[in-house]
Batch of 4 targets.
Target 1
Amino acid sequence: MPQSINRYLAAAVVCLVLVCVGLIIALAIVSNKDNDSNEVEELEPCTETNLYIEEVEPDNPGVFHDLTTKEINGLKDYLYNNDELDLVRPSESKKEANYVFVAELHIPNKSDVLAFLDQRAMQPPREAKVIIIRGKPPNTEINEIIVGPLPNPSSHRPLPGINASLPYFYRPMTEEDYGSVTDFVTNQIQSNLGDLFDRCYGTNLGNCGDKCLSFLYASSFSPASSGVNERKTWYWLTWDAEYYTLHPVDFSVLVHIKEDGLEINRVWFSGAQYSMEELKTEFQNGGITCTAENFPEVNKNLFSAPHRRGKIPETGKNKRGPKFVLPDGLRYKVTGKHVEYMNWAFDFRLSTSYGPQLYDIRFNNDRIVYELGLQEVSVFYSGHSPQQRFSDYMDSAELIGPSAQGLIPGVDCPDHATYYDTMHITETSETADKTANVFCMFELNTGEPLRRHHSYYDSEGKVYEGVENVILVLRTIITVVNYDYIFDFRFFQNGVMEVKGLSTGYILANAFSDKELKYGFKLHDKIVANFHTHMFNFKVDLDIKGQKNRYEIINVDVETEINEFSVKENSTYSQGYITRHVQQTENDAAYKFNFESPKYHLFYNNQVNDSFGNPLAYRLINNGMVKQIIPRGHNKEPAINWARYQHAVTKQKDTEAHSSSMYSMFDTDNQVVDFQGFIDDNESIVDEDLVLWVTLGVHHIPRKEDLPLTTTPGMGLSFYLQPFNYFSEDPAMASQDAVRITPKGAGVNVERYGMPTGSSKTCVPQKNNFEKMIAQEPDIVFEN
């Protein structure tokens, strides 16, 4: 084609583009003139919000507020000046001594709290729950006591529902314990088997520079598995490289932790078990052969180290992801730890022992839930090697609360979230340990409508109505060694609550052998990752229109009847129908899921009905059910007997405050907290104050895509509390997030109910100053 024609075509294209641009600008001007009064025309920045909350401790804390600094100081004065308790201070050695393991808020009896909240009675005295480990001979034991009244305590008493004296070997491990056991094992193994390590691993356990083997992981060997009421633990050997649970070697030791010292009972090496002397002698006599292993080559491409690597997709290259903005500022209010959002209100705290807890959850000022809280996080593994076989964990033994650390804006939570701190008192706390940014709170547009309908045709009425599904999220993340658990409490504008758990972090790998392939897949050159089950248990103390509730199951059954409308002789028709059954006792209400029998689970006050005779109810929807596969009574199964049921319903008792305890790792024969006992007394649950116990879980068979870190899609577990005939209509009809579109002449009318559209508003997201904060306070992210 001649160049002159090319030039003419180019000129024509330019002219056409200019004409189009001119038309677009003209149309935009006309459109702006036609916009309704709600349109925001001016350019303005986003509303500034203080995302990092500097909380002011109240002089008179509420009934659910965590211990204040003043109360903690008064508590410590009482404890350490009490000759009867005879306690050493946190900075002193805990060996053969009495010491405070943990102290936190004690929630008063429910009846006293409700009298205060609902009947203007006096606020119950503020008190603390204190766990004391009495290691001073001759009377070694564990005591749980209540100390009060705060801030100036004058007395203490045993914790109701817990034995006054618990066996000493149930005690949780302190930091001093971990250090002394690790040092003992390291020294014993190095002095006896140092030559074996030099030959088989090319390194040892001391003077190894940056290429070391270390005992960094442990699996408790409970009396249920060992057969003796003694404290024993398998300590694993791993390469000390990022991340060590993906670099195991086939070596572990069984340590007997006695009151008068430590002892190595067995050694597992290269697929066989020995005594220390047997392995040492056999190696010296040439009976042990091994193929030398090398320390992993540490660089950014190391499979276990999550450095960014791989080809960047072209569509996203050097482009940031979307950011959320708050065009008009926060739509929720937090006073202390009391939250108000739309029609919701609740209090929250982080229990040192049990993790996130919510209280007095109300919608339209009606209490729906008195108490909602995590009770236990459990992981049960399978395997051939003893260290993996007996890796059954109840994470409350590690204290769930302090396992929640600082959250990272933009990843853990959106940039626009607000953050809240907490304090813990543990065996290391000379003063209360403050953890910054342990909770985040934010509004989230889920990206899907809360409701919508589009009638397109004249015959349907020509109308569109929809509501943005914007919810409030309270989040904390618990990191227990290698696994991270994300817990969300989600509040919808239509009166629905969701509790969600997600797992991520590092899998627990095992040194590869053919025998381990029965339990998992080989994922890398030297490791196999074994099948395991994650389980979470929650307490939900429901108060639907008061404290006299019923639990009703609606069965979805099938009937097959004669079809009299068919021309075919003897024709039948099958369809579903419902039957309603009020559960009478706690045994009736211990629920195990059956796909062959669909059910609805409702909770309500039978004395409060609507004009049609329907009870005003809330429904449980469990989207995270799992089958706990260990047979009843086997291994550590009694320690998680709450997992026998997808949910259970019991009569509320202050002495049945929790479904688990931090002693469950070693407490098997006679549970300190025996959840099954809550059910076995089989009390009536008709028109009683009811507590719902919900179990969520997932079976995890690791895959290569779990390297280096397990990702969250597909790992989410949740349950919902959904209103069921509780309201006369969708309560989110009041939401200003709604949009209605109807015909208007030749055009349309867009109704936003007084809310600006913001179509011509430029709003810059708030600046995230987190990196500057952690430069000044690095202990927000890492231990100082």
Note: The CA atoms of residues 607 and 615 lie 8 Å apart.
Target 2
Amino acid sequence: MKYIKIRLTLCALFAFSSLFLATAQTSADNEAVSSNNDGNSLVQVAYRKVPQSDLLGGVSVVDMENLMKKNYNTYSLDNMQGYVGGWTGNSLWGMGSDYLVLIDGVPRDANNVDPTEIDQITFLKGASAIVLYGSRAAKGVVLITTKRGKAGPNKVDVRVNTGMFVSKRYPTYLGSAEYMSLYNEARTNDGLTPLYSANDIYNYSTGQNPYRYPNLDFYSSDFLKKAYNKTEAVAEISGGNNRARYYTNIGYYTQDDLFKIGQGKNNNINRLNVRGNIDFAINDLIKTYVNANATFYNTRSAKGDYWGAASTFRPNRLSPLVPLSFIDKNDVNNLALINSSLNIVDGKYFLGGTQADPTNVFADMYAAGYSQWTSRQFQFDTGLDFDLKGVLKGLSFKGMFAVDYATSYTLSYDNSYAVFAPTWAAYNGTDVINTITKYNDDKKSGNQNASNSADRQTIAFSAQFDYKTKINDVHNISATLLAAGFQQTQSGTYHKPSNANIGLQVSYDYQKKYFADLGIAGVHSAKLGSGNRDALSPSMTLGWNVKKENFLANSPVVNDLTLSASASILNSDLDIANYYLYQGNVTQADGAYWGWYDGASEKSTNVRRVDSPNLTFVKRKEFSVNMKAALLNKLITVDASYFTNSMKGLIVQPSTQYPSYFIIGYPQTSFAPYANFNNDGRNGFDVKLNINKKIGKLDCSLGLIATYYMAKATKRDENYLNAYQNRAGKPLDAIWGLKALGFYTKDEVTAIDGTAAHPRPTFGNVQAGDIKYQDMNQDGVIDEKDQVNLGRGGYSGAPLVTGVNLTMKYGNFTLFALGTGGFGAKAIKGGTYYWVYGEGKYSDVVRGRWTESTAATATYPRLTTGSGTNNFQNSDFWLYSTDRFDLAKVQLTYDVPKALLQKFFIHEISAYISGSNLLTIAKERKILETNVTSAPQTRFYNLGVKVAF
């Protein structure tokens, strides 16, 4: 019933829109077709559009509508670092992932708008470009502007794609026999007797009966497909005239999964989106628009964490499916027990298990049921544009209001099931099942359970007066005065995230030669105490079009050269984690070290924090310069920026500024206030260079992009005994760990005496073959005080991010290629794949383990059934480079000549074939391409066609 209502509602909205548009068009049939709605030469920036030639820096734009003609993709921000400078893949200028995403001016999810819906994406990197958006925009803004209808004949574009995902690489784990042998070795290293006999290991190695002697491979073709499909269809309908224009996008895609067993065979994702944008001119002075979007997203999943289990479940543990044929036909009791199961697979197998594993992920996929995650998003925004030239020539007013709803929940069938543990015997040389032990019972309630419900409401508004004038044909003045804000209500969140600000933008240029731009925002935050909740954020930009000076006006080399510089101070509350840090907090808790009377553990009153009334906004102080140039008859174009900024007054509880007794660990108590104490600093540059050349009939365009940034802690609340451990002066993304000196020998272990020459490790007892670390402070002890900066982690993107895009067009063929790179970052080989100890599963890395005979060539510590805490510390032993260059996309497009379509109702046909994530060039390619506890990385091969009617 719910879905019927949704369909009826959508149909009604569509019918109403169609009727509205038809009426509007009828009243304006004789009006001329306007070309002013092109938008290609205008760039959407904060609350206004400006000609691209007037951008003064800190802003980059991608024309998505044209890009999609040669590079079809399905995620709005897919590989954007390959087109614009300053975007690292997950941050702007290395500022972190808290950048603000606005879709048509409203805070929304970037993954909820399909690239086919997008007109352009603007990256506002510089502080001067984001000042009007207020506090929550201080880490940068990504503006996504959706398409709008254009005056002209009705147009229908239909696009259909289908493609296959192919796994790049699977983790490599040892088989049962090798695992058992090495596990025995680990036990021997620990002074224990071997667990597995030579006969056991032999039986597991032969593979003659994998049900009695299992060799479980989670990545086998028995369980996984070689490829899986995604199919998509999108229809775009647009048209209108000067009075009314409309754009509609209806898209649907379905995607299956890699699994070929149990409920996993039915895993799928499907998404339906409907967008409608309407622009209507009520008269010559008043214009309005209405945008609406609905997205229906469903994911069906089998029960169980398959990929997580694949990283921990040992290969010899059990056989997930056991054939019934191993049970003697005359064994009435065992057959009766098995036949009582509700989960006989394919009529031939029963679910295997053991007393230690009464459930397992394979049985989960067959018998535990399935779940369906459902997400619904409904978005609506509307606006008015009044021309107030009757009051003052050049004056106008704009207003926008938006309401969004997002809900999600999970529906599931949760079944319990029985597994059966066989006991094997050999009769006349043949393996048979002797006895069967049942664990658990089969239960299917038939009830559908609801869980994980979440909802979010977003309300946004803006109102602004705009003024534009020109004096004596040389002085261009524009100004914007605005008030804007948004608030989100989220389930499970007490205080609603909010943003409220007023702003003033004044721009001036003299003959498009000299530019000045002033922006001021008044921001407000409820995260601060009374008296500190309001602040002003100023920004100033100066620009100079050098090309218009006499000494360059006739230059055959320089076609354009514009320089600009900006200085800004932005006040932000993004880095204030809690709305109530300025308030004291007193709680009660059970179980202090003492009670109010002997022998009792009573509740204690604990001061969690004291009042911090002096907290203020965190300030982003920034200076940046920008250069835009076109050279050699626009053969080469360059857009480059340099920036330096600081985040001052980051809020911490500065424990080093107060006596130690102000802060107590248990019961948790603190009398130290929070303060604006820490500072961060960033500097770097980005550059985008394009080369456009026509060679005979071949049009070539090459884009080269680079972004480099350095982010450091410039001030920290810290009191380390050793200067090398100070975080101040070190990268924000520093990886801290120990310096490894190879493996201990027996003599070195014997010599440990706690002196500087032979320091004593504190991470557990060590033996020969364990990792030896450097005693950095020469105190005779190996501990946390010996950790040093090992390198940058690149958490906000690699220090150097590069991109290259190439377009070659010959006749009706277009070849596009995109490459992206990241350089200068490191990572630690950790997790269960690399840090193998105890009862863990063994990966192929342990083949290089230390033994007495391989001490000189070993690449891995000795094996152990203990915790291995000494070996598995962050250290440069586990460090590796994440430097990489990826061939992210190649697409070949063929446009059918329009001359061939003149007699048909079809106006355009384009067909294309593409591949994504095709190649990684890296020293550590195997590590970078391997996912351990999640689904594998994939290459995607796509075939598509676009038809215009």
Note: The two ends are 35 Å apart (CA to CA).
Target 3
Amino acid sequence: MKKNLISQLLCVTVFTATASAIDPGTLYRNTIPEDKNLDPAWVQSLSERGHALDAGISGSKAEDTLKYIGMPVSGIATGTVYLNGDGRLFVWDIWSAGHQGVLPNLVPPPKGYSGFRKQKGQLTPVSGSTYINPLTPEAFPPSFSQGFGLRWADGNIQQFAAADWESVEFTGTWPVATVDYADSKSPLQVELKAYSPFVPLNLQDSSIPVTVMSYTLTNTSSDTVQAELVGWLENMSNTANADTAGAFSIQPEWTSLSHACAMFMPSEKRGKRQSAPFHAKGSMTLSYLGTGERTAVNEVPGIATVIELKPGESREYTFLISWHFADLRIKMAYGPEWILEKNAYAERFEDADAVAEHVAANFDSLSSQTRAWVQTWNDSTLPQWLLDRTVVTLNTLQTANCNLLADGDGGRFWAWEGVRVCHGTCTHVWHYAQAMARLFPSLERNLREKTDYGTAQLENGVVPYRGTIKAGEGGGIAIDGQCGTVLRSYREHLISKDDTFLKNNWADIKRALEYLIDFDRNDGDFDGLLHGKQHNTLDASWYGKVHAISSLYIAALRAGEEMARRMDDREFEVLCRELYEKGSQGIEKLYNGEYYVQEEDPAHSTAIGVGEGVYIDQVIGQFWANQLGLGRLYNEAHIQSALNALWRYNFVPDVKAFRETFRKGRYYAWDGDAGLIMSSWPNGGLKDDFMNHWQYDYFNECMSGFEYQAAAHMVAEGTPELVERGLAITRAIHDRYRPQARNPYNEIECSDHYARAMSSYAVFLAVCGFNYDGPAGVIGFDPAIQADDFRAPFTAAAGWGTYSQKITPQQMQAELKINWGQVRLSRIKLNPGERPFQQVSVSLNGKKVAAELLERESGVVIALAEMIQIAQGQQLTVVLR
């Protein structure tokens, strides 16, 4: 009888309070199986090397896996340009219009969908429309003509697009994509390398408004081949009287075709609110790095260069498309008002021609550095799928989600949560992200100094969670975001080369933490846990003792203790320590024997929360502690039990049955997709009135930023079971974004390229067991997999390179090779496992370095006699015997 009732419920449109007469715990247990029944071959693949993300078409083109690919190939904070899987460029959100403006992408909701935020009955990007129906060049073609191809002697143009070639293969090694073209009727094979210059730690060279299209042509025939390589670019202006011919120029080493562009975006009405119309003026330039000539393709102006290749000969030809739109339209507050700012790149470059000139003059350096990073990142023993998935989310920096606002001092970083949705570099979203801090730490320091502790912070220490919005203006404080800001501040110190950042910002960091301490004190018991109204990232205020938020608070106290110690602020250090110890003990009252729960406040019995549910962020403070090397925050066994409970009760191998039962929530996982559900109530405790709350929708969703947080934590715990489960959750996300189904380069949560997804990098760091303290000159590695033969990339404060280690019964040899910049070191932390090595030898490029071997609880420390600097091209070798 019970089974029959459940079967009936699977068919209902909405999970309502009436349906909750059936025990919700039973429903969760029946739709989230404890036995995950995972394919053994799939599990084995979690740790196999594999190959880079690929897709392609051939022959009949029946299996086209290229169409959904949209890899950003624009500079950081310069707008969005997508490269399709077949090498075409599309989207072109470079003039502050956004998907919400010119690319609405409205799609019908799934049958029975009862989620929120629909427009005229259709789903918008906010509700996951681009997950269900990804952007493609066919569905969203550019409003102007642009492309590249071969012009043969008969005048026919063979475009670099799937329709014109028998075989097209895409290989993604973001930030560089490779597209290979071949055709039995063509004497040429073509390889495209597409990218925008991208050099970690070097923001200036990585934030240029340009896309590079480098074509290598190879003559596979026995005869000399002659043809023309052409590129064309129409004026993208959408106003009258645009100059359609453009300005053509031949320089000593490059040729250009420039357009002066004028764009107009009408006012946008949302409900009763209406924005002002937006006018944008700028320029775009098509350039060829060599001598070309003016041409036209279907009456669109372009550049042509003659090619002549002997049998077997190969040659590379490079085009650039650069752009320049000084005005930037952003939203600084709630309501209809949009304001005009200036793009920081407009302070560096006068127009698109100046951008092209700069890239042409520095192309060898920009190209070689970019390719060196790609080589470094992929030169690893780690699974390629893991390398791809954990770093690719950083491409949100290359989209219209992120901006650098002109301020005369390098720019002020400002971002949305997702493209054109939820403004203000929101603290309770962005604190999950780890990738930007590790690869471009200057942007995180910029955000702390110019926004969080600059324009935003209030006198009482509050950092309003939407940056420029003050308390009382719809912004105010998000407690989890406030904790995250303190934690990020300690991270920014650790990723710096010295203590300048901490010294300059300590007073403001301390005020931010003091607000939380006062929040604790005002509850009356001053117990290291937070009570009262706690607004958080699920857009609601929870009450009582909230396991997740108190976990973050405990981590923030530990970080505060460490920062106070380094600043010689003894009184504050002691206060943080005392409160941390109270919280570390007190939070155990929220442990129910299997996982942590929220102790709800009876005075706010109708407030939304998770109560007795199994919540994805329940031990998030320890996730942060792992990122910062803060050690164990509280009970190890209980934390591991809580993570195992997440796997048991929240991981769904196929969300189909779950979503057919629990209809509410947006679709970021589809039939056949696996994922970690935000919250479940397998043991009861889900209140009927929660189901009627619009924020209950969130609990039924798979949001990758949260999933990565839990996965990274599982891997960092280091037990074989949890490591495998953390990898499985990460791989489930990777599989959801397979090119056969959707865009692998656009992780979605409340719009495209959502910032929280950058927590993926935490999984990579956990797999490497990476530990770093730049000012102290300490680096460490403790791989969670493949420890006996391990190689992976790493970044430090001022350099990046490759770390490798090999362990045998006789010795452990570890090497640090610097491929860019330099790295200062005084100590190296390693874990040789159970091997009782007693001696150490260290050399830098073959020259002995004095060092001492120190034992610690989980491995060894190699203490160098003095601080050393490893320069680009040098290698440090450590041998333990």
Note: Residues 1-20, 99-103, 470-474 have pLDDT under 50 and may be disordered.
Target 4
Amino acid sequence: MKKLFLGLVLFLAGITAMAQNSLSGKVVDAQSGDALIGASVWTENLGKGTVTDEKGNFTLAKLPAGGLELRVSYLGFETFRKVITIPTTENLEIALVGKEFLTEEFIVSSTRASEHTPTTFTNVDKSEIAKRNLGQDIPILLNFTPSVVSYSDAGAGVGYTGMRIRGSDQTRINATVNGIPMNDAESHGVFWVNMPDFASSVDNVQIQRGVGTSTNGAATFGASLNFQTDTHQDDPYAQIDNSFGSFNTWRHTVKAGTGLLNDHFAVDARLSKITSDGYVDRAFSDLSSWFVSGGYYGEKSVIKLIAFSGKEQTYQSWWGLPESKLEDDRTWNYYTYDNETDNYQQDHYQMIYTGKVGTNWKTNLALHYTYGRGYYEQYREDDDFANYGLPPVEIGDEVIESTDIIRRRWLDNDFYGFVGSVNYVSDNGMLDFVLGGGANRYDGDHFGEIIWARVAGDTDIRDRYYDNNAVKDDRNIYAKATYEAKPGLNLFGDLQVRGIDYSFAGVNDDGRIVDGQESYTFFNPKFGLSYEKGNQTWYASYAVANREPTRSDFTDNPITEVPRPERLNNIEAGIRAKAGRFRYNANFYYMDYTDQLILTGQINDVGAYIRENVASSYRAGIELDGTFQLSPAWTFGGNIALSQNKIKEFTEYVDDYSGEDFRQESFTYTDTDIAFSPNVVGSAIVEWKPVKRLSINWMSKYVGQQFLDNTANDGRALDAFFTNDLRISYSAQPRFFKGLELNLLINNFFNEMYEPNGYTFSYFVPGEGNAGKDLVTENYYYPQAGTNFLLGLSLKF
């Protein structure tokens, strides 16, 4: 008993001694003396560590007595190593020396706005993305940024998702990755489902609202998203992220990197798998992706090779939910065929070079290639042979004109080209000049196959019932300059010329021959100024953007009546400010459209609905956002956008089936709201850190009423909604792990029943109303899940 007691005393004494030993310090830039936030502090022999706080400070607690092998690293700086004897009363100040090589920060510098740029933008860094990322798509992760409304077809944030910024939909939001365009050349959209878990390979993203700066790709027409992929790390690492949640949602991600090899080389890789049953019946998602990058980092140049791919299979839920089922059957799905799926894979390859030429010049060049292919499969009951260019089938005396079929509609496309720029900065730093541009080609095949028919007739498996090809060449050149006219006053100019040649030929999916060619030349000037005084930056700008019609605008309209290009004149003015623990942005915008394209109900000669130009429309609003750190434990943040979004005059066409012959009635409206453009969008985030490693966040989102069409009819609208999410994050640094993070996200905490997206159509039928007919309106909605959760565990090695 004496020995046992003595041993227990010695053990407790050892634990007590360990608990009493700690090491504190501060990490700074040796040249400037500025604190380095987020520097990695690691003990080689103990396998534990931490990162520096917002003042560059760190503390390592519960250290055993003896020698401590300390390693401190930060991107772009030499790694610091030192053996320290514990216990010690020394309070270290570690000054890291910058490395003599370029970093990835120059890769997208020509497309990014800076604090001097007179435009409206929001930056979201890797740490913010990581806190929210449990496998959801990009639009869901950016949901709490200013003026954003996001939605999900399957209702759970995985699969087909989308977003609008200031009411501008995905086709008007320009997306680039490392300066390389991501928007589909024909539809102008970005299909985030083809980039599953891409957020896990993103270092930061800048959201520009309005026209923004010139970009290397399709013209921005409302907003832009500029992604920079992961930068290299100095030290080797590995990371495993796993999460699961409601609707059988699972995410598995593995990341690893070599660190900097021989002071010049680094390789990073990621592999991801995401599955979900979806909130809507049968709306499952089966997604996989990978990402690999390798780089050479020299004193005057960086060369990076990047490849990433996404493969998806999703069960269709794009029909939506009819209004009649909104109250008691919110998960209803129109589709029942077991393979009513979308299947697509997209591979991206990028080679990026950036370098210094002398002391004043930098260059940036990127070559890229994207290969996309896939189809969606459909079961069609009792479909006419004539729809597929096939004759009726005669069996004996019976003539069969329709049958059940299964078809696949394919896309097979290549997109390739280059983007580049040269950047000159004067010796005194007063002039920053960029000359850049790019040339890209899209070559896409569109075709449909019959893979099964109940009555086959004169068909073979995979008969192509339509087949056409499109080629689009897109070129642009721009000159962008910022000049400091006097201390604090910066003048900005950005001139872009963009040329487009688009041709298409073959049989369309509705059986028509569509052969055509169009060319455009657009001049997109931008001017502005910014004034910096203390911690405030005031700015104002005027910008012009032009945008060509989409593929369907060409193919669905008669070639002789192709819609005119859209034009946007954009005014932005605002202030960015810091005052102690308070940061805020406030801005006013006015977006004046000429010839904006909208759906009016007008149909073409085969009954397809087409978009038409409306002469004049506008968006005007005020956006406010900010954060306030009340104390080390409490931080408050939020944003609100108040706007008016109007079409001055347009004509609606309504199908009329009330008589013997089909026709359309027309109605003219003035000063109506633009569809899907709420007058109020706001969010708020409250963060509480009761202890050092525990963070509790309450996140609220309000979106005002949205109209489903442009008639401002309350009977064709999405109700306003207010959602609340709870996120609990806990981090630890157990022995032999660089970090452990546990995240619990409870979405829609109060079980709000809401729909952020939908569509509508109306028609006349025989009835007792005026002129013996009644108007029928059918609304369809995309309901989002009620209360649901995601739980994630991240291990860093």
Note: Residues 8-19 have pLDDT under 50 and may be disordered.
